[in-house]
Amino acid sequence: MKIYANGYVTFGLNFESRYPDRLSKYLLVNTKRNIAQKKGFAMLAPLWTDNDARKGKVYYHIYDLTQPGSTLTDKARVKHAVDYAKDDVVENSGVSVTDVTWVMVITWSDMLPRMYYSTEYDLPNTFQLVLAYDPSRFQTFIMYHYMDMGWDSERTLRRSMIGYFSYKYSQEESLQLAPSMKQTAFRMHNRKGNTGRCNKLSIYNLYQHIC
């Protein structure tokens, strides 16, 4: 797994691009496409766009019930994070029972657009990707969270892609959310996804999608 400053993560192969595009196997050049067909490739994109990697921060944290830490404070923090993710999954994914034990939270914090002109831009985006894993059912759930989203596509002249994609053994699975490539993509915190709530946009069961 690799995390990129431009608002996405990949599994199986490295893929670095500042410029969002449709989620399909044609993202990959022929040589990488052949490798992906055999070994698998997946991308999760809460907001793939042209961020300025010199500004803002990208960080992650893993909460694992099997390794909760040594202090009571550590154990309580891990349990709280896992229980919170588990409640989200049960409430919004259609799964009635889940035994999530491992959660990874990736945060793109205060990200600013890469500006090609002298104009400065000071309204950042902050958003998250949450991965929740249930080892008893071999299920992985993804959640896209949007907090402070300050970009204005008319001023930043940016487009973005939101969704997920996987490719293996010539089997291709993808989902591109409707706001992708549109101005409304930078207002995801005001949009209700399949959770029915703003900010907490989408929860998907990736049982067969992650490589």
From TrEMBL:
Keywords from the named record: Disulfide bond
Domain spans labelled NIDO: 4-195
InterPro entries cross-referenced by the UniProt entry: Epithelial_Barrier/Signaling, NIDO_dom
GO biological process: cell-matrix adhesion
Pfam families, per database record: NIDO (PF06119)
Transmembrane segments: none
Domain of life per record: Eukaryota
Protein name, as recorded: NIDO domain-containing protein
Organism of this sequence: Ridgeia piscesae (Tubeworm)
